[in-house]
Design a protein that fits this description.
The chain is α/β, with parallel strands linked by helices and 316 residues long. It folds into two domains: 2-29 and 186-257, FAD/NAD(P)-binding domain, CATH 3.50.50; 31-184, FAD/NAD(P)-binding domain, CATH 3.50.50.100. Helices cover 31% and strands 23% of the residues. It is built from eight helices and 19 strands. It has helices at 39-42, 49-66, 73-79, 89-109, 134-146, 188-192, 242-257, 301-314; strands spanning 2-4, 16-18, 23-25, 30-31, 44-45, 81-85, 118-122, 150-152, 157-160, 164-167, 171-174, 177-180, 184-185, 205-207, 212-214, 220-226, 231-233, 285-290, 293-298. The strands form seven sheets. A five-stranded parallel β-sheet has the order 5-12-6-7-8. Strands 3-16-15 form a three-stranded mixed β-sheet, with no helix packed on it. Strand 9 (157-160) and strand 10 (164-167) form a beta hairpin. Helix 2 (49-66) packs antiparallel against helix 3. The longest helix has 21 residues, at 89-109. The radius of gyration is 23 Å and the shape is elongated. Bound molecules: flavin-adenine dinucleotide.
């Protein structure tokens, strides 16, 4: 049986019970702020749709604030400075999308702010995109820099206020929007469950290779499964990606619909990793196939117009 609490604040004291034959625990993770003072209060994480809406709303605010009569150029530049903390795939894609937006759409919609917006990426590590091959990571870093993204490696963040971020290396840096994309932390539910968990790094539920969880004494619990970001298979560390979650979900669907006594274990198939690093021409890139090799090419004028129309519809 599960004891549940409604997620609505006004119903937070209510409880209800749900009986199950089989349960799959898959609550994901939350963003890790590493306890750095001011981050939780001032930075925007990029995890949920609500976070994405917050980014959009803050972006509109800083553009409007920078457009107010009498705004000095220094104030405009500070307001339109977006800092992204975290040089993993999420942080880099956010930086790339913002760069495209500033280089292209914003210049059209806010011509008086053209050239005043900037994006910085800070990471404590000596390289960005750690899951990728070193050469690709270096290529991505130089691609971002050529798009005028200020990439700060080995950057140690000390604290954050409403409009500055302080690092050991550069002191206080002004910003208008701070995006926090530094990785995952376990959610409270995972911390409280009395099940076996990983011992190092991100706390995740441990499962066997059929995705069943373990009781604290190591016995397998046959009707309880765990997957997604909140779980990992004993003896192997799979990344917290949708790719892993989807493959495990497909596996469990087959397992639960099968009448076989002994099912084969789950096996992960690694697919290509892709990260968008922005387009120097402010245009989408399409891929054309020449023989078997995809070749990137700028989109045609018609494709570009279609893309701009879509952006106009969603309000960006
Ligand atoms: C910005 C961003 C970009 C990404 N891009 C990629 C990508 O390109 N490719 C890729 O493979 N992966 C990507 N990922 C990772 C991918 O999103 C996650 O690995 C995937 O969503 C994990 O799925 P999940 O079901 O474990 O968790 P989630 O998708 O986080 O879903 C968990 C759900 O459980 C709910 N929940 C939490 N606690 C409780 C509770 N106590 N009771 C009930 N419900 C609860 C949460 O509200 C949430 O809806 C990205 C992640 C982010 C943040």
């Amino acid at each position: 049986m599960l004891i549940c609490q409604p997620a609505f604040t006004q119903l937070k004291d209510e409880r209800f019970e749900v009986y199950y034959d089989k349960v799959i625990i898959t609550p994901g993770c939350r963003s890790n702020t590493f306890g750095i003072p001011g981050v939780a209060e001032n930075a925007i994480t990029v995890k949920t749709v609500a976070d994405a809406n917050m980014v959009r709303s803050r972006l509109n605010d800083i553009l409007e604030m920078a457009s107010l009569p009498g705004s000095s150029e220094a104030r405009q530049r500070q307001l339109l400075h977006v800092i992204v903390v975290g040089g993993g795939p999420t942080g880099i894609e956010v930086a790339a999308e913002l760069t495209d937006l500033f280089d292209h759409d914003i210049g059209v919609l806010f011509p008086h702010l053209k050239g005043k917006a900037s994006v910085s990426v800070h990471d404590v590590a000596p390289q960005i995109l750690a899951p990728f091959d070193r050469k690709l990571s270096e290529y991505a870093c130089s691609a971002l820099k050529s798009n005028k993204v200020n990439v700060k490696l080995n950057s140690h963040i000390l604290k954050v206020t409403a409009d500055t971020m302080e690092t050991t290396e550069d002191g206080a840096i002004g910003y208008g929007m701070l995006i926090w994309a530094t990785g995952n932390k376990s959610i409270a539910l995972i911390d409280t469950l009395k099940l076996r968990k990983t011992q190092r790094g991100l706390v995740r539920l441990l499962t066997d290779d059929h995705l069943n969880v373990f009781a604290p004494d190591g016995t397998v619990i046959p009707n309880v499964f765990a997957m997604g970001d909140a779980a990992d298979i004993e003896g192997g560390t799979l990344p917290t990606t949708a790719e892993v979650a989807i493959q495990k979900a497909d596996y469990l669907i087959t397992l639960l619909n099968s009448s076989r006594e002994k099912a084969p274990p789950f096996q992960y198939k690694q697919r290509s990793l892709v990260t968008y690093t922005a387009n120097p021409h402010g245009r989408r890139v399409r891929f054309r196939f020449h023989g078997k090799k995809p070749k990137p090419e700028p989109a045609s004028d018609e494709e570009q117009r279609e893309y701009e129309d879509k952006r106009a519809v969603i309000g960006m």
